Amino acid sequence: MCRRHFILALAFFALFSTTFHAEDTWQKEADLLAGLLQWHSGSVVAEIGAGDGQLTLQAARRVGAPGKVFTTELEGAKLSHLHELAKKHSNISVVKAGEADTNLPANCCDSIFMRLVYHHFTKPADIDSSLFRSLRPGGLLAVIDEEPAPGSSVPDGVPSNRVGHGIPIEVLKSELTTAGFEFVSSTTDWPSRDASHDMYRALFRKPKP
User: Fold this and answer.
1) What is the mean pLDDT of the chain?
2) Using a CB cutoff of 8 Å and minimum separation of 24, what contacts does 154-163 make?
3) What pLDDT does 24 receive?
4) Measured on CA atoms in the order 130, 131, 132, 136, is the torsion positive or negative?
5) pLDDT at position 198, please?
6) CATH number for the domain including 148?
7) Does residue 154 lie in a domain region?
8) In total, how many domains does the chain have?
9) Of all helices (H) and strands (E), which one includes residue 5?
10) Does some domain include residue 12?
11) Cβ proximity of 91 and 29 under 8 Å
12) Does residue 109 lie in a domain region?
């Protein structure tokens, strides 16, 4: 094999390995969420701030045709991409989110999750109330986020108690319990694709009457 072909082969292998690893990581996270949030065929779930929809797609596969996945984004290319994804998967429904409201229907979901999204909320109290309304009694909320790195900048418009890029877990717990949620559990060993992220997972429940 000539040197040029060898280099091209190495580049292709590296690209394939990276793509495969990324897909494998999404599956691992989805498996963790599926167990945590008790997904099964027919579950109705929502992802807040779904980005390119990788976890939305994983959730849709797990809840099956009888289930439903609401997937939200604010605007722009990400929202357009989610609409394209929904055209290919009948159990995915796209919702345009607002700054102060998820715009999800009331009592629509068995569970809701978000990944590295909460610390960007500029009106967290309003969003928390919206999340609470959207969950059915007994429903579960999983928030995957990160502790702020020392010296990191606070995202524009968010409350100053974030003290950096991220949100301290104790602040998260305080805000969501104030909104009416019950704190269930947390862990600091959530898988990360970037060693610079000190990620955690916190689980909450909407109380039953």
Assistant:
1) 89
2) 155/119, 155/120, 156/122, 157/122, 158/119, 158/120, 158/121, 158/122, 158/124, 159/124, 162/119
3) 79
4) positive
5) 77
6) 3.40.50.150
7) yes
8) 1
9) helix 3-36
10) no
11) no
12) yes
Closest CA to 112 of 142, 133, 86, 92: 142
Residue at token pair 């099956």: 64
Phi, psi of 26 (to 5 degrees): -60, -45
Closest alpha carbon to 33 in 21, 20, 48, 19: 48
pLDDT digits (tens, 9 = 90+) for 116-143: 999 999 999 999 999 999 999 999 999 9
Are the CB atoms for 51 and 29 separated by under 8 Å? no
Q: What residues make up the domain containing 67?
A: 28-205
Whole-prediction pTM value? Answer: 0.87
Structure tokens at 125: 């109290």
Q: Calculate the CA 50 to chain-centre distance.
A: 6
Ordered mean pLDDT values, 10 residues apiece, the chain (209 residues): 45 36 77 97 98 96 98 95 97 97 98 97 98 98 95 93 94 98 95 73 96
Q: Which residue reads 């020392």 in tokens?
A: 150
Assigned domain for 77 exists: yes
Q: For residues 208, 92, 58 and 190, what is the CA-based torsion angle, rounded to 10 degrees?
A: -50
